[in-house]
Backbone:
């Protein structure tokens, strides 16, 4: 039996081995190499419980960071970082003026919550920027930093248009969500989506998720939530500028900026050629000018 | 620098959990200057070899940064 | 910015509701992450890469003219080009967060990563620059061994070609990120970095020049490069305004860039050199003063441009304005 290596870490289990292809039962999807997997995060059913954050830290053995209170609603996580790969954003929209509203529109229109994560972009700028090849695309079409290769140059950090990847001060390597690469290899769905109690985070094959998301948007529009739209599907906000699509995409009900998302991010590597060529042409032109100046007769 | 004796009970990339002799678990990450590489941690966890970790406190995290890992001889067995 | 949105129709439909940024942020928290470098270390490297690359280019051009009075400049150019392979490389390794793995940079060559492109420019440049400098040192020590000078001249050509990459790829390194100040002016930043590099090479060679005729020529090269840089600093600022990211200039690095790098580092030496040239009298003191200002200005440009980029990444109002649909390449054209 092809057991997951982590099985020996949990000797207290009643089972003598792992359930084969457990994701079939927890997410209704068979995980096979060569297919695209991702997350669909439906913010309209997020209740802000942060179970995803906890599950992520538990599975990935990540330390607690940024200890303290931010004073920004219930968001004491603050942002995605080298040690935080899921971050629940809280946006309080009603009662902001100190007066509590008596009625609210449906679907958390007054209090928005969103579990942010690495988007695993189709044309991932971090992957394209990585000069060591430490960041690679896995057989599940996800983007992972190989910790045994990363040398901490930090160039993936400004490359990311979503501010996701970060370099840890403690171990000097870049870190971000791996979409639980080790779990996928063992036939388990990622820890965060498995822990999500409302199925706000759904894991699955990308084409299935995109179809499911489109149905969900239609359903919400029919129920009177006209503001619902997808972020990160082909042609939508978040999938602009050559990024094509995001493997982790979202259903939002307010402007992207409200959730700290850019409306129209771009693929950074598109700027390599124009920049390099104009620089080289400048130097060539100035070197030509220099050859005329230097070879001129003395005045 | 401080040291802690125990056994490695969990490994993820360059992060590991060290369970000390009192049964309390502590979170560590490998320092960029540590001679040990992430690939060496999992064999240590599987063999349950007793190790001594020399460490510093981590910056802005509840966790330690391992500077050095020494495999100890099995004592009292 | 904030003008009505016109673009590819199927994209425009989904983006249209968000075409104009209303200033919303998430508790004012940063939306991007700044590059975790030490601006003076990486800025120092970019400066040395520009200086070394352009010294080698100018030495090679000067050697090709065959003019006797430029021989001293050729020698100094060959030696100055050793700055990037030595101190420059050391600065790069120092700035890594896991320096012991610096050699992993040599695992791959990627056209999408300017840092990988630059690694190979630096490798190629170092090999030929060392050969060229060694040949020159040998030729000066043993003048009868004529092959040594030939080696120096021959190695200088590929070194100069790699050097032109070395002194400009650093602009692509900055522009091929999501940091608003760098990403909003890819071409102009590269032209500015390229001309600044040539100016520093000419300035450094002129500083050690005792022959008045050769110094006047080198000063003219410097003048030419500074003129291009002066124009491009204005154009770059214009691009930043158009992209809506000029708010980042309201910061210490922004003021250092405006006063230290542009006014004192470009306009002052440009004015000084132009004035002495127009007068027809070219005292060495003026040349030295202009050269020092150019060198300091170029170093300041690099470190302040790095810090300014990180300021823009930390400010959510700037980065969210930058990523509005109006700044998409297919919309901007």
Residues:
């Amino acid at each position: 039996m092809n057991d997951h290596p982590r099985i020996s870490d949990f000797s207290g289990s009643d089972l003598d081995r792992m359930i084969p292809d457990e994701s079939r039962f927890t997410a209704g999807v068979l995980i096979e190499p060569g297919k695209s997997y991702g997350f669909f995060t439906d913010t309209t059913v997020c209740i802000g419980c942060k179970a995803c954050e906890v599950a992520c830290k538990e599975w990935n053995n990540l330390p607690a960071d940024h200890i303290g209170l931010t004073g920004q609603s219930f968001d004491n996580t603050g942002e995605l970082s080298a040690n935080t790969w899921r971050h629940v954003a809280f946006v309080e929209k009603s009662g902001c003026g100190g007066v509590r509203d008596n009625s609210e529109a449906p679907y958390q229109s007054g209090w928005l919550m969103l579990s942010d994560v690495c988007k695993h972009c189709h044309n991932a700028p971090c992957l394209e920027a990585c000069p060591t090849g430490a960041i690679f695309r896995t057989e599940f079409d996800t983007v992972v930093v190989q910790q045994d290769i990363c040398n901490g140059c930090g160039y993936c950090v400004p490359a990311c248009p979503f501010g996701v990847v970060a370099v840890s001060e403690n171990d000097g390597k870049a870190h971000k969500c791996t979409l639980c690469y080790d779990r996928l290899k063992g036939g388990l769905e990622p820890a965060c989506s498995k822990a999500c109690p409302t199925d706000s985070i759904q894991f699955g094959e990308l084409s299935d998720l995109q179809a499911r998301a489109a149905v969900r948007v239609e359903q919400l529009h029919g129920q009177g939530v006209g503001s619902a739209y997808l972020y990160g599907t082909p042609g939508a906000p978040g999938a602009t500028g050559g990024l094509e699509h995001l493997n982790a995409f979202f259903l939002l009900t307010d402007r992207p900026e409200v959730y700290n998302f850019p409306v129209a991010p771009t693929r950074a590597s598109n700027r390599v050629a124009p920049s390099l060529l104009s620089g080289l042409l400048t130097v060539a032109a100035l070197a030509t000018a220099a050859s005329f100046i230097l070879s001129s007769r003395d005045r | 620098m401080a040291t802690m004796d125990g056994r490695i009970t969990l490994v993820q990339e360059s992060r590991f959990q060290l369970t000390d002799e009192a049964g309390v678990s502590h979170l560590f990450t490998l320092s960029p200057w540590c001679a040990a590489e992430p690939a060496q941690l999992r064999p240590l966890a599987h063999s349950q070899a007793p190790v001594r970790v020399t460490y510093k406190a981590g910056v802005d995290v509840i966790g330690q940064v391992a500077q050095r890992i020494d495999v100890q001889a099995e004592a009292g067995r | 910015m904030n003008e009505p949105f016109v673009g590819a129709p199927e994209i425009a439909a989904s983006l249209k509701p968000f075409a104009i940024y209303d200033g919303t942020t998430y508790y004012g928290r940063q939306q991007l992450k700044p590059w975790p470098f030490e601006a003076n270390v990486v800025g120092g490297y970019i400066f040395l890469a520009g200086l070394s690359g352009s010294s080698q280019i100018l030495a090679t051009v000067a050697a090709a003219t065959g003019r006797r009075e430029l021989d001293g400049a050729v020698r100094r150019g060959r030696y100055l080009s050793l700055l990037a392979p030595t101190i420059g490389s050391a600065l790069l390794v120092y700035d890594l967060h896991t320096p012991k793995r610096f050699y992993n940079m040599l695992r791959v060559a990627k056209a999408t990563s300017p840092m990988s492109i630059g690694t190979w420019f630096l490798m190629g440049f170092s090999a030929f620059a060392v050969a060229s400098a060694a040949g020159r040192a040998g030729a000066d020590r043993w003048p009868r061994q004529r092959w040594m000078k030939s080696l120096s001249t021959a190695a200088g050509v590929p070194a100069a070609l790699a050097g032109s990459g070395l002194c400009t790829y650093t602009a692509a390194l900055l522009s091929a990120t999501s940091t608003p100040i760098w990403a909003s002016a890819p071409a102009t930043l590269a032209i500015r970095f390229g001309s600044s590099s040539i100016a520093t090479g000419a300035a450094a060679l002129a500083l050690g020049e005792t022959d008045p005729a050769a110094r006047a020529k080198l000063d003219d090269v410097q003048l030419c490069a500074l003129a291009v840089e002066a124009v491009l600093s204005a154009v770059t600022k214009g691009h930043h305004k158009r992209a809506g990211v000029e708010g980042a200039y309201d910061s210490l690095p922004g003021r250092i860039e405006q006063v230290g790098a542009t006014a004192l580092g470009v306009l002052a030496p440009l004015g000084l050199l132009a004035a002495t040239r127009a007068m027809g009298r070219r005292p060495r003191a003026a040349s030295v003063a202009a050269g020092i200002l150019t060198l300091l200005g170029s170093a300041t440009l690099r470190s302040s441009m790095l810090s300014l980029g990180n300021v823009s990444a930390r400010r959510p109002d700037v980065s969210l304005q930058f990523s509005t649909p109006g700044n998409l390449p297919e919309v901007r054209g």
